[in-house]
Write a structure and sequence with these properties.
Layout (H helix, E strand, L loop, with lengths): L3 H4 L3 H33 L4 H48 L4 H7 L1 H43 L1 H48 L1 H6 L3 H27 L1 H26 L4 H43 L21 E8 L9 E8 L4 E6 L5 H7 L8 E6 L2 E2 L5 H6 L1 E4 L8 E2 H5 L8 H10 L3 H5 L8 E2 L8 H13 L5 E5 L7 H14 L4 E5 L11 E6 L2 E6 L1 H7 L1 H10 L1
Helix pairs in contact: 2-3, 2-5, 2-10, 3-5, 5-6, 5-10, 6-8, 6-9, 6-10, 9-10, 14-16, 18-19
């Protein structure tokens, strides 16, 4: 998808902008002519009526030019803002289809920069193109024609100074354009450092790394600043250089014109008009130069946005989806499943096979990096398997539509996420049409009603960004309630009880047993006490299942499980 695809719908408005810009330029080009007439035929001859009449015409032309300029500016601004709006909407919709693998490729910080700063660059450049690029060439060509018409000999002075102007523009283009491309990369880096500092502020303070992180931010900030200053310093050379050229040309015009005026070959008014046309030509060249500097930066931003659009989601819905067997109601079957993260040497999950049935609780335990969470993330298709298959109710999940698959699942992730809004709104993420009674019941099962009832506004209490006004255990219970209110066929708990104390952990698991009697439950846990009552426990090590059975069976026969139990008791 290209940027021009977002501009095409506004072709009619662009034609209107061109017509209005043409009217504005014609008005600007006519005014010096009338001014010359006033000086030569009005002031020089003392013809007051002619001055008033021509002055009135100039006022009308000036008002027409102003009206055209205002209308063109309005439509150009509206078009640029609409293009930016459509781009942001399209990128957001495209990114929401990404699997976790695509997010890993681009990076969250870079996606934020591309959606904000890069689109802002394109938006500003679109406006400048619609105003300047439409106006500058017409103004330049029209100014040259009018200048030659006024006096061909003086026009040779324009040709004499053009090589110097061309040299200035070339130097600016060669030096500034590459720097502006680098600026976008430096903004990416600064956003990355800033985001890491804001998200990880507690860790940074806990380890007294504020000084180090401050230096890291200052280094990225200084790097961006120096690059931006270097680019803008070169750009700052443009206006003084053009003004110097313009002033030299004006002096030359007055000097050579004075001889011709003395001979009677040139009128004073025509000389003044010629100077005005020369000024308009220089202004148009300055605008063109600024555009040539802005365009590469916009092209760099457009390329970065195109990279996002070109990144196609690996996980897509099948053309003809299959419906699960309603008689099985949540049966999950892993058949020799293997999976590895991109660019990883070893498999995160290797040759895993097991079955989880309705009314059954399957627990997964193992050391850090054993592949427990990776295995769980395969069920809702956050990642796709590399080998083997995962079936739900007899259907390969790759043959199901993603939203239909995920409607069957209630997930409580390892990384707790709550959203800004009220407690009610957070729990309704699990079920949009949940009633107040269903929300209260879900909170009671998750043991979240205890602290919610103590809040001033209870279920209508606002949740701060990132849930900073709640503790880790409280956010975990809200996350459990969000899954419970959905009443799904499959519950996935990814180390979802780690922030709870032993008493609350036991209460929540007891309450969940009643709620999940007819559902399939898969629990990933670190604590043996959280899973010892499970119907089946899978012990994982280095991505493989090295043990399967009940707590008592594994305690007797599995060395890895024995080590885990021993380490916790």
């Amino acid at each position: 998808m290209l940027i021009r695809d977002f501009i095409k719908p506004f072709w009619f408005i662009i034609i209107v902008i061109i017509a209005l810009t043409f009217g504005q330029v014609i008005a600007d080009l006519l005014l010096p002519n009338y001014m010359a007439d006033i000086v030569d035929d009005g002031i020089a001859k003392g013809n007051t009526s002619m001055i008033l009449r021509t002055g009135g015409i100039m006022l009308v032309i000036a008002f027409i030019g102003i009206a055209c300029a205002m209308a063109a500016g309005f439509f150009a601004s509206r078009t640029a803002l609409s293009v930016g709006r459509d781009l942001r909407k399209a990128i957001f919709n495209h990114v929401t289809r990404f699997s976790l693998a695509e997010f890993d490729k681009v990076g969250t910080s870079s996606l934020i920069t591309r959606t904000t700063n890069d689109i802002q660059q394109i938006q500003q450049t679109t406006f400048m193109v619609l105003r300047m690029m439409m106006r500058a060439p017409i103004m330049c060509i029209g100014g040259i024609i009018m200048a030659v018409q006024k006096d061909g000999n003086l026009s040779l002075l324009l040709l004499a100074i053009l090589p110097f102007i061309g040299g200035v523009i070339y130097l600016i283009m060669v030096k500034a354009v590459p720097l502006f491309r680098v600026v976008q990369q430096k903004i990416d880096r600064l956003n990355l450092v800033l985001r890491e500092n804001l998200v990880g502020i507690r860790i940074i303070r806990a380890f007294s790394r504020l000084g180090f992180e401050r230096k890291r931010f200052e280094a990225a900030n200084e790097d961006l600043t120096h690059t931006s200053i270097s680019a803008n310093r070169i750009m700052a050379f443009l206006n003084p250089s053009m003004n110097l050229c313009m002033n030299i040309l004006t002096i030359a015009i007055i000097y050579f014109a004075s001889f011709r005026i003395d001979k009677g070959d040139l009128m004073v008014g025509n000389m003044m008009a010629f100077i005005q046309y020369a000024t308009q030509i220089f202004m148009s060249l300055t605008m063109i130069t600024m555009l040539f500097v802005m365009l590469p930066r916009a092209f760099a931003s457009a390329e970065r946005i195109r990279e996002v659009f070109d990144l196609k989601a690996d996980i897509t819905d099948p053309e003809h989806s299959e419906k699960p067997d309603l008689k099985q109601r949540g049966t999950i079957r892993f058949d020799h499943v293997s999976f590895r993260f991109e660019q990883a040497e070893n498999c995160a999950v290797q040759d895993v096979s097991f079955t989880a049935r309705p009314g059954e609780t399957v627990a997964i335990i193992g050391g850090t990096g054993a592949g427990k969470s990776a295995l769980l993330n395969l069920i809702p298709r956050y990642y796709d398997v590399e080998d083997g298959s995962i079936e739900i109710d007899g259907v390969d999940i790759r043959q199901m539509k993603q939203h239909e698959l995920r409607e069957l699942i209630g997930l409580v992730p390892q990384k707790i996420t709550v959203f800004s809004g009220t407690v009610n709104e957070n729990i309704r993420m699990g079920k949009q049409d949940a009633t107040e009674e269903e929300i209260i019941q879900a909170c009671q099962i998750a043991m979240a009603d205890e602290f919610i009832e103590a809040l001033p506004l209870k279920y209508h209490t606002e949740v701060a960004q990132g849930g900073t006004n709640f503790s880790g255990g409280q956010k975990q219970r809200l996350s459990i309630a969000r899954a419970v209110v959905r009443k799904p066929q499959i519950y996935l708990f990814d180390d979802s009880f780690s922030a709870l104390d032993f008493k609350t952990d036991a209460q929540v698991r007891t309450a969940l047993e009643t709620q999940t009697k007819q559902a399939t439950v898969i629990i990933v846990a670190q604590r043996v006490t959280s899973i010892q009552q499970a119907d089946k426990i899978l012990v994982m090590d280095n991505g493989k299942i090295v043990g399967e059975g009940t707590h008592d069976e594994l305690l007797q026969s599995n060395e890895v499980y024995q080590e885990i139990v021993a380490s916790q008791t």
